[in-house]
Amino acid sequence: MTFLLSLLETRILGVLIEKQITVPDTYPLSLNSLVSGCNQKSSRDPVMAINDTEADEALVHLKELKLVESSHLGGRIARYSQRFAAVFQVPSQSVAILTVLMLRGPQTAGELRLASERLHKFSDISAVEAFLEELASRSAGALVVKLPRQAGARESRWAHLLSGEPVINEAAPQAKEVADSGLQARVDQLEAELMELKEKMARICAELGVE
């Protein structure tokens, strides 16, 4: 693919993919749920604070590129779904890796394995590395790139190329620690459950005609 996406557009795609897998009962997502997912403070780098108008503008472009579809599913509220795998022709394992990179920024193979656990369980780091190498050498165009190893770091990080060549922040810490996977998984689960409850309440209010 020759088009480039903005940071917000990749965030939206990442959220749609993530929520489709982790909270399927609330998928496709309403605009409110999508904005909440983009502004989520955990498992996001950078943390964003977008509004409905900004999300709407990004969605228009994503729909033009056939990466996102909208529907109403019998209700008044528009809901959004993604077509990432169909457009880029990549397997689910690669989609999981790219989703983490879109949501969390550059990661090492080890970090990717931990962070993508809810999207796809990789058997080991070598499996992650194999899919990364495949994404980096695609004949249709590379989707990831291996960044130069930072001083003091034991592993190189990888970044997606959906928004062009990544800008390396030299002022960033030299070594990025892997967050405690158990605690992070619990935080993600609680946030997913809260979003699911909010979505169900919104649907009930819509059916009852209550604002």
List keywords for this structure.
three-stranded antiparallel beta sheet; WH-like_DNA-bd_sf; WH_DNA-bd_sf; coiled coil; DUF480; 48% helix; 8 helices; mainly alpha; 211 residues
Explain this structure.
This is YceH family protein. Residues 180-207 form a coiled coil. This protein is mainly alpha-helical. The chain is built from eight helices and five strands. The protein has a three-stranded antiparallel beta sheet. A two-stranded antiparallel ribbon has the order 4-5. Helix 1 crosses helix 5 (92-104). The radius of gyration is 17 Å and the shape is globular. The N and C termini lie far apart (42 Å).
Got a strand count?
A: 5
Q: Average pLDDT across residues?
A: 88
Strand order of the largest sheet: 1-3-2
The gyration radius over C-alpha positions equals: 17 Å
User: Approximately how much helix is present in the residues?
Assistant: 40-55%
Global geometry: globular
End-to-end separation: 42 Å
Number of helices: 8
- What proportion of the residues form beta strands (DSSP E)? 5-15%
Order of helices and strands: HEHHEEHHHHEEH
Q: What composes the largest sheet?
A: 3 strands, antiparallel
Ranges with pLDDT <50 over ≥5 residues?
A: 171-181
Protein name: YceH family protein
Family: Belongs to the UPF0502 family.
Keywords: Coiled coil
